[in-house]
């Protein structure tokens, strides 16, 4: 059936349908659709039927939506609107290949439609069709050569295709069109400069990257990133003295970034352990509250020197209460000698704190607060859990809980220990206890749901997740829509353990729908069925 031109009254109504769709006023949109379709002359108007279907889809009525859109397409197969709408419907169901075919059909009928081209480019990059994405962005650049997005999008296409020369050429050509005074800081222009520099670094244009960042330094908002790029490039160029100054300045800005210390060591070319320790000691004096310059030497020293430095490090952190202390030291557990020293020191602290509120019975002065013993016991529970000595780990965590039964971290760790033991039901129980102490904490909520799934408590896990999912839909549907992969995969494992293979297979298909075929075909074009 040929395209039917609507008279002015109905044409205005159709424009209002489009506006309602854009503004998410779906019920009003359906009213306007009804006003057009109730007229016998336009009861079969293809574009209106298609828009009615698209609106119904937004209201969750998928079957009706497909029925109306397909009917509209049959009635007006030469309409780019009908093909575009059909593509949007397919896209909403994650059928990206089908959506792309619909967009291409729409472009055959209206080759310069900006919205369809933009939608097509988004799906092409989603499907990793980089060649197709480049062609589409070129068309958009030709149609809108003055828009920033047109140039950036086209340059990104070449960047992703690793044609760095062309990407840089396009970015520079566009940069030269920007009228930004040298002393003015414009955020978007700053981001353009940084992106240009990123492409240079990926292309291994080290000297060019350094000169570029120094030339436009005053016009870049992110001063920290400028210094980081300078340090990296100066190191690569072998300009070590300048690089060391840059990394010293970076450490002054953030003394907790381990990468800066690594860069400083490379720049100073420190050859002996004494030289390295001296640098860390100097930085510790300059930044007395920083943890990193005291922690990093522990990676370097063995034996008694390790014991001496560790003793100072642990005392400070236990006194002030540092929950992630064990995580900070966990990377030392590859070394059995260091493990023994850690265990000896901390168990001695615990015994002494219990006896006299000091780290050592030979000390005097101000006593340690009760929380110091709590953090020592918390540390020991993590320590023995790491070593697989679960009985001791439980003893220490139970002692900590007995003294402070309101601390989430303690219950979280107890659940973790039971998980490592293999008692998943008990682990889920204690994680639920942790969650009950702070019901607004999404992280603990997610962990609790995960532990419940591991214990095959699927219904309870869904109820737990429903506290943070959208109202009006079930937690399962919402988590599937959000592509919450950890929940989906844990559900599959739980169903499999319960012998509910049909439900497990259904979940597998849901996950497969999230992942376009290109992700599993090495980026090759999948076979397109007619």
Notes on the protein architecture:
By secondary structure, the protein is an all-alpha fold. Among the domains are: 1-127, Serine Threonine Protein Phosphatase 5, Tetratricopeptide repeat; 301-405, no CATH class. 72% of the residues lie in helices and 0% in strands. The protein contains 30 helices and no strands. It has helices spanning 8-22, 26-37, 46-58, 62-75, 80-92, 96-109, 114-126, 130-143, 148-160, 164-175, 187-202, 206-215, 223-237, 240-253, 258-268, 273-286, 292-295, 297-300, 303-320, 325-329, 336-356, 370-386, 390-403, 408-421, 424-437, 442-454, 458-465, 475-481, 485-497, 501-514. The longest helix has 21 residues, at 336-356. 34% of the residues are buried. It comes from Pteropus vampyrus.
Q: Helix and strand succession? A: HHHHHHHHHHHHHHHHHHHHHHHHHHHHHH
Q: Quick one: overall form?
A: flat
Q: Which radius of gyration do the C-alpha atoms yield?
A: 31 Å
Largest sheet properties: none
Please give the count of helices. Answer: 30
Classify the beta-strand content into a percent band. under 5%
Secondary structure category? mainly alpha
Structure summarized in a few sentences:
The protein has 30 helices and no strands.
Keyword list:
single chain; 530 residues; mainly alpha; Serine Threonine Protein Phosphatase 5, Tetratricopeptide repeat; 30 helices; 72% helix; 0% strand; disordered C terminus; NatA_aux_su; TPR repeat
Task: Provide the fold topology.
Layout (H helix, E strand, L loop, with lengths): L7 H15 L3 H12 L8 H13 L3 H14 L4 H13 L3 H14 L4 H13 L3 H14 L4 H13 L3 H12 L11 H16 L3 H10 L7 H15 L2 H14 L4 H11 L4 H14 L5 H4 L1 H4 L2 H18 L4 H5 L6 H21 L13 H17 L3 H14 L4 H14 L2 H14 L4 H13 L3 H8 L9 H7 L3 H13 L3 H14 L16
Helix pairs in contact: 1-2, 2-3, 3-4, 3-5, 4-5, 5-6, 6-7, 7-8, 8-9, 9-10, 10-11, 11-12, 12-13, 13-14, 14-15, 19-21, 21-22, 22-23, 22-24, 23-24, 24-25, 25-26, 26-27, 26-29, 29-30
